[in-house]
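Consider the tokenized backbone below.
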């Protein structure tokens, strides 16, 4: 990676930008769509078929092998869903969305540096060389999306099988299934927002270090939703390559990387 050491006389700190909401929504909508499609296919191709072929046995937990029939149908639906949302499709979607996050993050940071230092955005962008790091972060987020899909499919199968062992009726199982779908959808949305925030914070940090900026100051959102141990860090200076440790939670963190963290930071430009 090319490195440029910047400095300025009496330079003011540069406040990092917040993760772009448009891309947080885009990834959240894609992951929610996956969950909705899995639920639809399970309802139609698993529970729907189970209702037609084994409803009499299903009502009595002591007779019939309805669980084996259900598992066969669930595995078939799972294979179709993994084909619909294969690795290539997930990685392409993540790359497109995070590529937009990267473009915006780069432009906003370099614009602020240009205003403070006078070096043009074009000159700064020409020397950054972040491609390997960007690719690694994109693959990491892709793995989180795949994990969310795998966990959802496993939860559908395992939870419904467990309900069958307790003698629950099809109506009861479908009600629990709907509750599980809502929980998995919420979890997917949280994961999407967290991954975009994580990507944004880490790429900003790497760009700042590439410019020779080594120090930053933790900034919270200053509202009632800020976690206590993040509020403790507010205003404190830290090394970008290390993050900020607090005995409050025993963690060393970078703003925006902890789960659902809305904190940002000020980049401290070295003085000449």
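A designed sequence for it:
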């Amino acid at each position: 990676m090319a490195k440029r050491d910047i400095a300025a006389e009496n330079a003011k700190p540069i406040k990092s930008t917040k993760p772009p909401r448009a891309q947080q929504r885009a990834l959240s909508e894609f992951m929610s769509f996956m969950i909705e499609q899995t639920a639809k296919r399970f309802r139609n191709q698993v529970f729907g078929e189970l209702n037609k072929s084994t409803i009499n046995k299903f009502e009595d937990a002591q007779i019939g092998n309805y669980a084996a029939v259900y598992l066969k149908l669930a595995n078939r639906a799972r294979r179709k869903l993994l084909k619909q949302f294969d690795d290539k499709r997930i990685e392409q979607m993540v790359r497109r969305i995070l590529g937009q996050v990267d473009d915006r993050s780069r432009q906003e940071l370099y614009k602020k540096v240009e205003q403070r230092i006078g070096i043009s955005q074009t000159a700064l962008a020409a020397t950054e060389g972040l491609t390997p790091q960007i690719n690694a972060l994109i693959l990491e987020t892709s793995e989180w999306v795949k994990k969310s899909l795998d966990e959802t499919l496993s939860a559908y199968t395992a939870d419904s099988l467990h309900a069958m062992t307790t003698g629950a009726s099809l109506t009861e199982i479908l009600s629990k299934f709907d509750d599980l779908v809502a929980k998995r959808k919420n979890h997917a949305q949280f994961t999407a927002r967290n991954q975009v925030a994580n990507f944004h914070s880490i790429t900003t940090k790497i760009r700042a270090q590439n410019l020779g900026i080594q120090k930053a100051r933790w900034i919270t959102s200053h509202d009632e939703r800020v976690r206590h141990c993040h509020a403790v860090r507010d205003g404190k200076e830290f090394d970008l390559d290390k993050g900020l440790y607090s005995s409050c939670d025993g963690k060393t963190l970078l703003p925006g990387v902890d789960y659902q963290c809305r904190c940002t930071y000020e980049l401290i430009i070295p003085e000449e």
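The CA atoms of residues 160 and 173 lie 6 Å apart.
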